User: What shape does this take?
Amino acid sequence: MTVSNQDATTSFTKSTSTPASTATGIGGVIQNYRWTWNEQPIQVVYETLGEGTPVLLLPAFSTVSTRGEMRGIAQSLSSQFQVIALDWPGFGDSDRLPLEYQSALYHQFLQDFARDILNTPTAIVAAGHAAGYAMQLAKNTPDSCSKIVLVAPTWRGPLPTMGATPQVAGGVRGLVRSPFFGQVLYQMNTTSSFLRLMYGRHVYVDKSQLTPEFIANKRQVTQQPGARYAPAAFVTGAIDPVQERSDFLAYFQPLPAPVMVIIGEKVPPKSREEMDAIAKLPGVQSTTLPGSLGMNEEYASLIAPIIKDFLGTVS
Assistant: This one.
């Protein structure tokens, strides 16, 4: 697949934003970036908050992925930095087109966004699967990244992590993309009860936070037109930034920028193995805090001071 970089243009629509729930935004100024992939225009929503040195916040990929999951970190950092949080193409408030979502799309998108919108060395805070894309950006364009914080970083999607072969994962992805059965299957996996189960199993630690309002907000994210296509790609491994651990770790050798890894005490064992492997690499700073795969949202109040200290002291 080719990318028409010449056609990538930016369009800014500024308005103050006071989101009704933490599922939608960070409480800043909403803007639009019009990007082109394989001659297909895609409108990407991002939001800015605060003033000062820029910090880009990249939410994790998931069925409920939005920039709103970075709200707590964003509001804390905005007292010292200009925070930019985005919704990935196919997620959140960005266009959710029925594309064949793949890692090449997201690698190219992030590179173009950094060039067109940031246009200066920028600190990046990346959660979950966003870690691989942040590290590849730093590796390929070192001048784009000043410092990198990875929060509960992952690189392998849920089905591959469970041992599904590429053939099985591809079959599931095809089913979810199918016109009728795919929508039925997607709805079965985005009911309130299923979302509560998943959050309680490996996303949040404190189940008392999984209130009916919280779950309703998350389910609303999953019910937007075209919502199933990009999440299906994530779940089945189609947008895994790499295919092997060795390829992921190669992004860190040598370090393209100062890196801090924040690990959750309760992350699932297989994910913890991957995070520990990163933490052991030469030059990587790491810390372990309460939380699981959703720690960037659940424990933002603990994570934000660590990030502030790292961004403020590492040259």
Remarks:
- The radius of gyration is 18 Å.
- The beta strands are 11-16, 29-37, 40-49, 54-58, 82-86, 122-127, 145-151, 259-264, 285-289.
- Confidence is low (pLDDT under 50) at residues 1-22.
- The longest strand covers residues 40-49.
